[in-house]
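Comment on both lines for my students:
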Amino acid sequence: MRYFTIEEFKTKYIEYDEFDISSYKIDWVCEMIFSKIGLRYRQNWDENNVPFSVKEASMEQLRFMLEHDIPFVDFDKELSAGPMKAKLKSDYSTLALRILANAGFLYRGNTMNSNMSLNIPFGGY
């Protein structure tokens, strides 16, 4: 699954033009974003028909992964800025998650019924 192309990414994030980005990394970040989308909203998307907010979140996720040099595995990483230090508990960009949440795609926080792919009424016709 691929929601954007390398060219789209490098057009949006010009500062990453010199980075050698493997195409499998695009697949990986798109899978990560797909895993956060509520079941009701999951579709067979590609770079031609994916909703803009899902594409934006996927590109932001790749930028985040490149910027923080986070490998595609879950582990705690300590980040520091001068004397301040904090452990990073998530491999997800908070901006990418906000993009999904604002567009109504975020999986977390939805009720179970909202995440079902079909709305099944009980007892009514």
The chain is about 40% helix and 10% strand. The beta strands are 77-81, 84-88.
